[in-house]
Amino acid sequence: LNIADRDLLYKRINERVDEMFAHGLLYEVFSLYKKGITPNAIGYKELIPFFNKEVTLETATDNIKLNSRHLAKRQMTWFRTQMDTHFYEVNLDNIEQTIDTIYHDLKEFLK
Predict the structure, then answer these.
(1) According to the model, what pLDDT value does residue 89 have?
(2) Entry pTM
(3) What is the reported pLDDT for 7?
(4) I want to staple 55 with a disulfide (CB 3.0 to 4.6 A). Which of 10, 41, 44, 59 is the partner?
């Protein structure tokens, strides 16, 4: 996977966060919060200030998206610096082309 287009990466992250909320993230975190459990994971820690009435839900959501982008950047940096990795942009509209490209590169690598 190669996310060369930062706007596309941010769009995907934002959509994923919106999906998390649509699937009950707020209620999941609130149920833990009521029990005194405050996880430090992205998507959880940003909602605690909302429950404490320190920020709006919009701000908490924006913070989840921002922290998710920061994590994605750190992950991409780690892969680039720690591993001899080749990244691929996956074209879902033409997955066969992506598979062919990966197959070709793999054959060359194994020679």
Answers:
(1) 77
(2) 0.75
(3) 84
(4) 59
